[in-house]
Amino acid sequence: MSVEFESCTHRYRRGPLVLDRLSFAFPAGRTVLLGPNGAGKSTVLALAASALRPSAGSVRFGALDPAVRSQLRSYRRDVGWLPQQVTAVPGMTCREQVAYAGWLKGMARGEAWTGAVPALDRVGLAKKADQQASSLSGGQLRRVGVAQTLVHAARLVLMDEPTAGLDPAQRTAFRRTVERLSEVADVIVSTHQTEDLWEVYDHVVVLAGGTVRFLGTVDAFRALAPPGAAAGREAEAAYAAVLGDGEE
Ligand SMILES: Nc1ncnc2c1ncn2[C@@H]1O[C@H](COP(=O)(O)OP(=O)(O)OP(=O)(O)O)[C@@H](O)[C@H]1O
């Protein structure tokens, strides 16, 4: 089961069209979403999370359509979203913040409180459960954000640039988080970082100008790198080949 866009059009207020009748389905498993600044990645993820509604067309997760009122709550329980900014709730411990997120998604209070522990464990933060969320580093706070999506047993987790601004050690730790997360949910991650695609992801989607320029396996993506691409920089070369000249 995956998120499917059907003839999806989106514009912000009276701005230009960001997406114009976009139709595609994200693959299952671990998918990385690439694209230059302004390509529409955050817009696509926010639409997939039902945080935005398309101006026209539809977004579905399996049989669930978030535009149908009675399906919205189920949709949001199935599809977790980690936006670019994760904020620590002042005065809350990590466990409280994760439980609170579950409660907001409709879980019973006790169920959310109990479920917060394994969710934090899955992102490697069990030991920090009783620490104030505001005392965590940026990378740890994003892992709390991931735990917030896991507490309500999401089947798909969307992450918008989760590694932006993280140092190399935290990026590596986040990679492990994605790997562990993918044992229980499908994962879609938008990023500008291409260096470790092969180790982490199964599929690549490249978006530019609101259209899908590439959708396929990491191996098919890697094969797009021109012969002679520098070792370790094949993904960068493949990305440049997909976008052609003149784009980032
Ligand atoms: N809240 C908003 N109001 C108006 N326009 C917006 C808004 N958010 C995004 N846009 C516009 O929509 C287009 C797509 O932006 P989006 O943030 O989805 O791209 P992106 O691929 O995530 O970019 P980046 O890599 O820089 O984060 C851009 O032209 C952007 O200016």
Can you describe what's shown?
This protein has 248 residues and is of the alpha/beta class. It has a domain at 90-154. Helix content is 36%, strand content 23%. The chain has helices at 41-48, 69-78, 94-104, 109-122, 138-150, 168-181, 197-200, 218-222, 234-243; strands at 3-11, 17-25, 30-34, 56-61, 79-82, 156-160, 186-190, 203-208, 211-217. The strands form two sheets. Strands 5-6-7-3-8-9 form a six-stranded mixed sheet, with helices on both faces. Strand 1 and strand 2 form a beta hairpin. Helix 3 (94-104) crosses helix 4 (109-122) and helix 4 (109-122) packs across helix 5 (138-150). The longest helix is centred in the middle third of the chain and has 14 residues, at 109-122. The chain is globular and about 55 Å long. The structure holds adenosine-5'-triphosphate. The site of adenosine-5'-triphosphate has 11 residues, from helix 1. Residues 12, 15, 18, 35, 37-43 line the site of adenosine-5'-triphosphate (ATP).
